[in-house]
Amino acid sequence: MCLSNNREDSTPRLKTTPLTFTRRSEAEMIDRSRSFLEMIRSRRSVRHFSSDLIPREALQNCLEAAGQAPSGAHKQPWTYVLVTDPDVKRRIRVAAEKEEWEHYHGRAPEQWLNDLEPLGTNENKPFLESAPALIVVFAQRHGATPQEQHYYVTESIGLSVGFLLAALHHAGFATLTHTPSPMKFLSDILKRPSNERAFLLIPVGFPVEGCRVPDIQRKKVDEYTEEV
Predict the structure, then answer these.
(1) Residue 93: inside a domain
(2) Could you write out the DSSP letters of every residue in 94-115?
(3) What does DSSP assign to residue 220?
(4) Is position 133 within any domain?
(5) Is pLDDT of 147 > 80?
(6) Could you tell me if residue 226 is inside a domain?
(7) Cβ(163)–Cβ(68) under 8 Å?
(8) 98-140 pLDDT, tens per residue?
(9) CATH code at position 128
(10) Residue 147: how many CB atoms within 10 A of its CB?
(11) I need a surface site. Which of 13, 118, 141, 160 has the fewest CB within 10 A?
């Protein structure tokens, strides 16, 4: 039993079930971690999507994987809205480009624009229509009523989206994390309840043939980790 009777780590009141856990050899752990690292190293943000249809079952499996993430008090404060209707995608693009135009031409600080300039991004977002699917992530600030509190919502959503992006890439999808600012139009177009706020917009599909991405480098692991 992993459960403790100490006051600092009290036995949970929920019904428990045996943990399913496979303890692997050191060599297998190294091999599996290296394999995952190589796979995730190849993930890049894609802005040029093919119109080719994508396998729905694979996409649903990835969405279910997102729901396996841990969350504060197990409230699972996320809603994933899958958008494939061309008319809805068009409305999202029009609204997003309106907000982005205002962002790039007045709202964004000069430093922000300078940092984005090498990437060549602007207010034009054709990928919101060309990608065969959009996944719109909403954070539930509370449950159906304000009395149903949710905890660590941002942290929980971040964990869930991380699961989703890894699952999508592992399955063979190309993705982009897009955050038009502000994003209230997503709640309006998708008719979301008042307890939800838009968190992230993820186009999903396959890259166009010959797709190119910026030649950028990640930080080396010793640049962002410390050991004490």
Answers:
(1) yes
(2) HHHHHHHHHIIIIIS-HHHHHH
(3) P
(4) yes
(5) yes
(6) no
(7) yes
(8) 999 999 998 889 998 999 899 889 999 999 999 999 999 999 9
(9) 3.40.109.10
(10) 7
(11) 13
